[in-house]
Amino acid sequence: MKVGIMGGTFDPVHNGHLAVAKEARERLGLGCVVFVPAGQPWLKSERPVTPAAHRFEMVRRAIAPYPYFKISSVEIDRAGPSYTIDTIKELRADFEAGDEFFFLLGIDSLAQLPQWYQASELIKLCRLAAVPRPGYSLPDLKAMDREIPGISRRVTVLEIPEIDISATGIRERVAHGEPISGMVPGAVEEYIRGAGLYRS
Fold first, then answer.
1. Average confidence score pLDDT of the chain
2. β-strands 2-8, 100-106: how paired?
3. In terms of C-beta distances under 8 Å and separation of at least 24 residues, what long-range contacts does 164-169 make, across chains too?
């Protein structure tokens, strides 16, 4: 089976995340997509992140209607910073030895890959499925081969429409009392309102 792994802060999860997961599932023939909310994201340590319990619950509610989407608390349960390679290793234990993993990431994150912990080992454990992000172009994979040998052969670029929804924009809209309908699933909007998240 082909398994998609979608990591992220999900602060909050939004319709763009779901659309990417659906497109990746169809185009790559994935049996399922596992959403992995970050515990302590080391690349985002410069801003406060909403407590993990809230972010996990928002993802759980967002994916509830889709039987082919799953959620894992592997990063939340792990103490300290979250590294993707550790997550992939732990998730592999839940699947068959022959299953193929595809880690979904934006092309902005792909460009940062040389900074990632054990990036050369990571691409041996999974393929990378890169999705377009507004304002970013695909990095030069051949040039990246010099830093991460073999990466150009381990990346699949998904030609899907760019989705211009950002978690930052959603948080700002909530803080200013503006509507977010159509940007997040209804169950997530209801949770944000009920839990009083993102208010200024």
1. 93
2. parallel
3. 164/16, 164/134, 165/14, 165/15, 165/16, 166/14, 166/16, 167/9, 167/10, 167/11, 167/12, 167/14
Count of other CB atoms within 10 angstroms of residue 95:
15
Tokens of 96: 């068959």
Q: Enumerate the domain spans of the chain.
A: 2-165
Strand partners, 5: 34, 103
Q: In what order do the strands lie in the sheet with 69-71?
A: 69-71, 32-37, 2-8, 100-106, 127-131, 155-157
Q: How far apart are CA 55 and CA 58, in angstroms?
A: 5
pLDDT tier at 164, thresholds 50, 70, 90? confident
CATH superfamily of 2-165: HUPs (3.40.50.620)
- Is the separation of the CB atoms in 158 and 128 below 8 Å? no
| Tokens 């944000």 belong to residue | 192
Model confidence at 28, in pLDDT bands (50, 70, 90)?
A: very high
pLDDT at 105: 95
Structural Rg of the chain based on CA atoms: 17
Write the pLDDT tens digit of every residue in 81-135: 778 999 999 999 999 999 999 999 999 999 999 999 999 999 999 999 999 888 8
Q: Tokens standing for 113?
A: 């890959």
